[in-house]
Amino acid sequence: MPAGVREQLQRVRWSLTVMFGIFGIAQTSWMGRLPSIRAALDISDGSLGLILTVAAVGALVGVTLVTSVIMRLGSATTMRISMIGSLLGFTAMGIGTALGSVSLFTLGLMTNTLVTPGTNVPINLEAARVEKPLGKAILPQVHAAFSVGALIGAGLAAGTSALSIHPAWHVIGVIALVTVGRFFLIAPGCELQLAPTRQGGATSMTRQRGGVARALGERRTVLLGLVILAATMSEGSAANWLNIAVTDSFQIREFIGAMAYGTFVVSMLTVRLLGTGLLKRFGRVAVLRLSGVSALAGLLLFGLAPNLALAWVGIVFWGAGAAMAWPIGTSAAADDPNRAAARVSVVNSFASMASIMFPPVLGLLADTWGIRNALLLITGTMVLSIVVAGQARPERRAATELCAD
After folding, report:
1. Which letter, b or e, does each residue of 267-278 get, where b requires 16 or more Cβ atoms within 10 Å of its Cβ?
2. 317-327 pLDDT, tens digit each
């Protein structure tokens, strides 16, 4: 490979990696302040679950449209639109929290979830595009960067909580800083994007029009979507509810709950940093099955533990198990470069479905069962992920392209 090409690939790789990291800060740090946000809005867990559900409808709309937007405008423009939307959405969330306005907070959150697929889908797509010429899996490292961002976000949440800084200032301040970073990283991260198409364009992107419907009819793609659905329930439930579960169940301060989520993220990050080596040695299927077993054991221990110490051990296993399912599912969906955009969009739509279905169930059950018991519902999806893990095997045409598989 010419030195100039390798240098470009590395530039794209690290731009995407850093961008996903700071995206992780924005998407998770506000969740570390959920107990304070809940108090500022004067709502119950059930009401909070309904707010998250309404917001998740935006994610479903966004992920439905994102493939067409990417094909028409390109990954870079799609991510710039998403960046501006996130800035507006988080600002509205902050102002809504400050004013105690549930409607404004919900509108801001829905705006943010609507544009979120415009960042995570293009990043996953462009990272998968880099994997092929590099000849190794990089998606675990890219997702590890998201975990680093989540860890930083949890630290910021714990710090601002300990200092009694109002969550509104936290939300607005974080998104302002993150927007600056994203502005400078989008262009170098999208150097390999295929040419966006207009009416009647003849590029390879045009051949993917209608590909979403075709991908929805593919058994392998749908089953990979179920893997990502399980991953979303596992990782997303921790982001949304772990702080509250620890805070309410063990009657401790909010910043300790934020530290518990930080532990989850550290465990997830450690496995993702080791992910490329694990995939190279054991393959996608074995890693995915082991991940499901670890998450299942961790959830059971966290939900049933009689004290905080044992629950904390469960958090470690839960985080380790949540680490690899999403990058493995995304990488597997992108095995065929000619169908990657449609398939990645479809499997990510399962994440949106999980976001819509699960928050209200957890919130409503939390009011009667307690949030730790409600979280045990995720164990069913972990079993499902273990059962369908074989679908992550590389497709025949792509089997020799990634030495990490």
Report:
1. bbbbbbbbbbeb
2. 999 999 999 88
d(CA 358, CA 338) in angstroms, rounded, equals 33
Look up residue 308 and give its two tokens.
Answer: 């905080």
Helix (H, G, I), strand (E, B) or coil at 128: helix
Q: Are the beta carbons of 213 and 99 closer than 8 angstroms?
A: no
Distance CA 273, CA 271 (A): 5
- Taking residue 10's Cβ as centre, other Cβ atoms within 10 Å add up to 12
Is the distance from CB of 382 to CB of 296 less than 8 angstroms? yes
The DSSP code for 241 is: I
Q: Note the pLDDT of residue 198.
A: 54
Helix, strand counts (H, E) of the chain: 18, 0
SS3 381: helix
Q: Which amino acid is at 244?
A: I
N residues, the chain:
405
Count the neighbouring beta carbons within 10 Å of the beta carbon of residue 371.
24
Q: Which residues of 203-236 are buried (b: 16+ CB within 10 A; e: fewer)?
A: eebbebbebbeebeebebbbbbbbbbbbbbbbbb
* pTM for this entry: 0.74
Residue in the block written with tokens 């800035």: 87
C-alpha torsion sign, points 402, 276, 119, 357: positive
pLDDT bin (cut points 50, 70, 90) of residue 404 is very low
Rounded to 5°, angle at Cα 240 from 344 and 231: 35
- The set of residues, in sequence order, having a beta carbon less than 8 Å from that of 276 and lying 6+ positions away, is 136, 137, 138, 140, 141, 404
